[in-house]
């Protein structure tokens, strides 16, 4: 039996019936989480995912504590923990120019009192998409969405694995098709892009020597580099190396393929990772690098189409916010759709909420990038003022790891971080 409000399709929207209340384009963490949460609430959900088996695309594998809290609100936390998740309680952070203290205990020091959660991305996608199907969503794999016609009753055109064309109409289309979203174009959304700054490379390794009981973040502001390692289950570790693209190569200088492991290691070591960490490291997945510049759609709802996850806003992977933002989008859209029978209003409310959440993350990560990763002279001058004050009073730092978008990000917070609140 359907629960309200899905049992009552508002008569003003259309006459007749639709097979699905909503159709989700893309079964990544954003789309699958939303499908899971809404199917559990009784909605008729269709998920269209082009991959028949998920592969390692070198994506996010470390979920911040505030993202774990979102997973909990979606009812996904236990599932992720039980099926391949690796909880990590400690966070070790080193910034060149600052004294390094003992690792932070995330459970003791974050408002949600939760550890971070790491997982291998393709395994996590499989777990969440299967959970959505088990909750009642209709999941079509190997299906490529080829177009969406927005409107009061949006229409989706797909190519099936057998090469046939099919169409679906629905009440709401949710574009969850990732950082190269085609839904953005089909919906006529305006896309904003920051200038390219960081290039982010990732490698999956076995036998990597970083401590397995903590996440390790090492930032080298003078060199504009960072090394980040997230231990996963079964002795695996996802390591990222990112560098500030001072020369403006816009991602043309790429790390790709197994032969680039030596460059990946050299860059990570230059950023501050001990060389012995690589002594027994074996590459067990692809190496790939990506331009890190944020790109986003302001107000990601219009004309029967909502965007979530990277399709709505792809944030600089250097700061590992994407998974948490994707879960936040799924939670927020689920809540709004369940609370309001008028989905036009509900989706507009979601879009406004999304802009607030993502805007805060963009502001905060922009400050962190300037202060801890930008090697250019203007940033050096800002650091000379800010770092001694942060050392004297660590509460000046913005608690991005613990609070994410809930951390204060107004002008007063910025001035405190940059030490501009003192004469
Ligand atoms: C190098 C790197 C490191 C990162 N590290 C972190 C990290 O440590 N922590 C973190 O939180 N985030 C990180 N991120 C970001 C994180 O990976 C993304 O934010 C997250 O995966 C977004 O999920 P999504 O569901 O929106 O998109 P995706 O995971 O891209 O899912 C989109 C899905 O849509 C499907 N699809 C696309 N087009 C179509 C179509 N036409 N028809 C049918 N299906 C389609 C795709 O097959 C895919 O399954 C990182 C990103 C990168 C690039």
From TrEMBL:
Keywords: Oxidoreductase. Residues 21-339 form the FAD-binding domain. This is FAD-binding domain-containing protein. It comes from the Bacteria. The keyword Metal-binding does not apply. It holds the Pfam family FAD_binding_3. GO terms for molecular function: FAD binding; oxidoreductase activity. The keyword Oxidoreductase applies. SUPFAM superfamilies: FAD/NAD(P)-binding domain.
């Amino acid at each position: 039996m359907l629960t309200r409000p899905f049992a009552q399709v508002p008569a003003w929207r259309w006459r007749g019936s639709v097979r699905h209340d909503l159709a989700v384009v893309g079964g990544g963490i954003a789309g699958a989480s939303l499908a899971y949460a809404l199917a559990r609430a009784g909605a008729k959900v269709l998920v269209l995912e082009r991959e028949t088996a998920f592969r390692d695309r070198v994506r996010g594998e470390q979920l911040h504590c505030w993202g774990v809290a979102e997973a909990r609100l979606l009812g996904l936390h236990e599932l992720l923990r039980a099926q391949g998740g690796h909880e990590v309680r400690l966070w070790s952070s080193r910034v060149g120019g600052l004294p390094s203290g003992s690792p932070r205990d995330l459970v003791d020091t974050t408002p949600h009192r939760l550890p971070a959660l790491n997982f291998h991305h393709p395994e996590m996608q499989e777990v969440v998409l299967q959970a959505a199907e088990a909750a009642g969503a209709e999941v079509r794999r190997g299906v490529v969405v080829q177009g969406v016609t927005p409107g009061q009753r949006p229409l989706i055109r797909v190519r099936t694995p057998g090469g046939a064309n099919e169409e679906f109409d629905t009440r709401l289309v949710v574009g969850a098709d990732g950082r190269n979203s085609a839904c953005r174009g089909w919906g006529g959304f305006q896309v904003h892009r920051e200038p390219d700054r960081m290039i982010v490379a990732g490698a999956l390794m076995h036998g990597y020597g970083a401590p397995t009981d903590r996440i390790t973040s090492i930032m080298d502001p003078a060199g504009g580099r960072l090394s980040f390692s997230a231990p996963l289950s079964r002795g695996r570790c996802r390591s990222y190396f990112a560098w500030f693209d001072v020369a403006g190569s816009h991602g043309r200088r790429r790390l790709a393929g197994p032969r680039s492991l030596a460059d990946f290691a050299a860059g990570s070591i230059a950023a501050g990772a001990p060389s012995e960490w690589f002594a027994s490291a074996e590459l067990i997945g692809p190496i790939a690098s990506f331009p890190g510049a944020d790109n986003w759609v302001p107000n990601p709802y219009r004309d029967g189409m909502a965007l979530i996850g990277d399709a709505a806003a792809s944030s600089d992977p250097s700061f590992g916010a994407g998974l948490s933002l994707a879960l936040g989008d799924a939670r927020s859209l689920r809540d709004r759709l369940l609370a309001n029978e008028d989905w036009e209003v509900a989706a507009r409310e979601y879009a406004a909420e999304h802009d607030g959440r993502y805007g805060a993350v963009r502001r905060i990560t922009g400050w962190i990038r300037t202060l801890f990763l930008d090697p250019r002279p203007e940033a050096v001058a800002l650091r000379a003022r800010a770092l001694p004050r942060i050392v004297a009073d660590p509460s000046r730092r913005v608690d991005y790891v613990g609070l994410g978008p809930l951390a204060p990000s107004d002008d007063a917070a910025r001035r405190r971080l940059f030490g501009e609140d003192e004469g």
